[in-house]
Amino acid sequence: MNLGNGMRKSEHTGALRTPMCLYSEQIFMAKQATSTRKAKQASPPVDEHQNCRALGQVLDRIGDKWTVMVVGALSKGPLRFNALLRVIGGVSHRMLTLTLRALERDGLVKRTVHPTVPPRVEYELTKVGKSLIEPLSSLSAWVQKNQAAIEAARLASDAK
Predict the structure, then answer these.
(1) Strand pairing partners for 16?
(2) What does the pLDDT look like over 11-30, one tens digit per residue?
(3) How, if at all, do strands 120-125 and 79-80 pair?
(4) Is the Cβ–Cβ distance between 146 and 139 less than 8 Å?
(5) What tens digit of pLDDT does each residue of 26-71 get?
(6) Contact call for residues 80 and 99 (beta carbons, < 8 A)
(7) Residue 37 and residue 35: Cα distance in Å, rounded?
(8) Which domains does the chain have, with CATH numbers?
(9) pTM over 0.70
(10) Per-residue pLDDT reduced to its tens digit, 73-129
(11) Inter-residue long-range contacts of 93-98, CB under 8 Å, 24+ positions, other chains counted
């Protein structure tokens, strides 16, 4: 069952799956079906399902518009909250707060409170967060290289 956003519901387990996970599940099921002895017990390995769920959760986090902007801004070094607001532009105070909390929870951003009056709070990328810079830079380069082709394909599709 297609749920939009590339997510589908597995016919066998009812769990939400990404297209890649569904493909892996279908291959697994086909292999199991060839063995008549285990055909009734066919289900994907638990590790496979957990890996797909983990991948989906991480992609949800790093694929978020504001996460990409925050990681890009913090790639140049630590910044205070208001500096992040200015650098990113267009993000609301609440959305930036939620994004920073989620990134801190996932271990991508470190929040440091300096004992001054008023307290000075800085945000910086952790080692794991810094390891995200290169893949995001590669993705950005890919988008810039292929943007014209993507736009042309959209126009052609919309004209139909």
Answers:
(1) 9
(2) 444 445 455 555 555 555 55
(3) antiparallel
(4) no
(5) 555 555 555 545 545 555 556 788 888 888 888 888 888 899 999 9
(6) no
(7) 5
(8) 2-62 (no CATH), 65-133 (1.10.10.10)
(9) no
(10) 999 999 999 999 999 999 999 999 999 999 999 999 999 999 999 889 999 999 999
(11) 95/66, 96/66, 96/70
C-alpha pair distances (Å), 8 with each of 3, 14, 45, 59:
5, 9, 18, 16
Q: What is the DSSP string of 55-103?
A: HHHHHHHHTSHHHHHHHHHHTTS-EEHHHHHHHH-S--HHHHHHHHHHH
Token pair belonging to 60: 């949800």
| Amino acid at the residue 141 | A
Please state, in angstroms and rounded to a whole number, the distance separating the CA atoms of residues 33 and 12: 13
